[in-house]
């Protein structure tokens, strides 16, 4: 748990959050006031809502007129919104109940929002990482296919995973004896331990070894091998802390040597939609094909991400289980019921659309530090450099 000198409430708080105050009909056009709000670490939820109420006094004028008339927001229903810029000409926003916390660590900006459609949502470097309503889709998809395809997974290494949800899903497997979770950002881990109640049991499990370190350095320093290595890293964004961990050299010289015979590597691989899969998904898939004999790409729709998301699983041993065999292993090995993944769901998830299959088949780029692809956005390191 965080000590008094490293309380999440004492992070330097300067994360810009985009908040909308919206005026609804009877006006023919909705008037939106976009405010880039820099929130002080001392700002509590109550004062946040006081600020929202004051925004209702703003009038539409000086270019914000509707049908040539100026209109006051007073008396109309108002909502506060979080906005994320997915790409240059596309933004995704949703209504907020409150801002629970904003802050900055050495590596990343961080925010915890209470959203109306998705519950509590963790945002890092301006990108939504998970939301409590649908995070089970992402984490079940990341964890269970790899562990179920392995004949007897006992030791697992997680790269990243600071929020604890990946560890939670792994620890449901009865065969698992040891989980090493390695995250570079101690403040994010402490923050998640404090605020994400659903994962507190996982953080207390004696099988979990929490390490604060760079995943590359940690894997290279260890002599032991692991049955499954899981990449639950932040998206590869320019200036972010993780994009070097999607490269061929990393997979080849660091990950693969730390896998036991028959071991499996799986990583989250970014957006995998019809239009978005060429950002990083196809390149990560092709990069792993250069390193491992057998590679399976699969995807699922994550509502809070506003897109289909992708994962890539790789091994030098073939993936031979059918849907019925996967279901049998789930019944034998996993405590409790999955909400999302079962045998048929995985079979469907790994049957990609024609356009995505074609792109993956034709992809030639290999992910290196010199030829890295990034999803839209910039990490804290680049923003600090540009400043």
Automatic annotation (TrEMBL):
Record's keyword terms, sorted: Polyamine biosynthesis, Transferase
Catalytic residues as annotated in Swiss-Prot or TrEMBL: 232
Cited CDD domains: AdoMet_MTases
Gene Ontology biological process terms in this record: polyamine biosynthetic process
Record-linked Pfam families: Spermine_synt_N, Spermine_synth
Key word ATP-binding present: no
Entry's Gene Ontology molecular function annotations: thermospermine synthase activity
EC number from the UniProt entry: 2.5.1.79
Catalytic activity: S-adenosyl 3-(methylsulfanyl)propylamine + spermidine = thermospermine + S-methyl-5'-thioadenosine + H(+)
Annotated ranges, domain PABS: 79-316
Family: Belongs to the spermidine/spermine synthase family.
Annotated NCBIfam families: MFS_SpdSyn
PANTHER family: SPERMINE SYNTHASE, THERMOSPERMINE SYNTHASE ACAULIS5
Name used for this protein in its record: thermospermine synthase
């Amino acid at each position: 748990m965080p000590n008094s000198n490293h309380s999440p409430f004492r992070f330097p708080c300067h994360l810009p959050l985009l908040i909308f105050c919206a005026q609804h009909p009877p006006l023919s056009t909705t008037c939106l006031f976009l405010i880039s709000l820099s929130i002080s670490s001392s700002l509590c939820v109550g004062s946040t809502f006081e600020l929202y109420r004051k925004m209702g006094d703003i009038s539409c004028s000086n270019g914000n007129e509707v049908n040539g008339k100026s209109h006051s927001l007073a008396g109309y229903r108002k909502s506060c919104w979080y906005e994320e810029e997915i790409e240059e000409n596309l933004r995704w926003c949703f209504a907020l109940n409150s801002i629970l916390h904003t802050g900055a660590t050495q590596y990343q900006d961080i925010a915890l929002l209470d959203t109306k459609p998705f519950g509590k949502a963790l945002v890092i470097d301006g990108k939504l990482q998970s939301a409590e309503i649908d995070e089970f889709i992402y984490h079940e998809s990341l964890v269970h296919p790899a562990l179920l395809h392995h004949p007897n997974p006992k030791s697992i290494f997680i790269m990243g995973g600071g929020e604890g949800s990946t560890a939670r899903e792994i620890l449901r497997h009865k065969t698992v004896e040891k989980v090493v979770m390695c995250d570079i950002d101690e403040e994010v881990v402490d923050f998640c331990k404090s605020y994400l109640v659903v994962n507190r049991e996982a953080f207390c499990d004696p099988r979990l070894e929490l390490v604060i370190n760079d995943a590359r350095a940690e894997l290279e320093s260890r002599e032991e091998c692991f049955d499954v290595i899981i990449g639950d890293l932040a998206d590869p964004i320019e200036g972010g802390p993780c994009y070097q961990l999607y490269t061929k050299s990393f997979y080849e010289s660091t990950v693969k040597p730390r896998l036991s015979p028959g071991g499996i590597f799986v990583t989250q691989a970014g957006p995998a939609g019809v239009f978005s899969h060429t950002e990083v998904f196809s390149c990560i898939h092709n990069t792993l094909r250069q390193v491992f004999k057998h590679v399976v790409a699969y995807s699922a729709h994550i509502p809070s991400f506003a897109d289909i998301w992708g994962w890539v699983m790789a091994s030098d041993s073939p993936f031979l289980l059918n849907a019925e065999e996967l279901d049998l292993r789930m019944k034998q090995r996993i405590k409790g019921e999955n909400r999302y993944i079962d045998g048929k769901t995985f079979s469907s998830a790994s049957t990609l659309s024609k356009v995505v299959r074609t792109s993956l088949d034709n992809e030639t780029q290999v992910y290196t530090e010199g030829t890295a692809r990034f999803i839209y956005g910039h990490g804290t390191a680049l923003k600090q450099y540009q400043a």
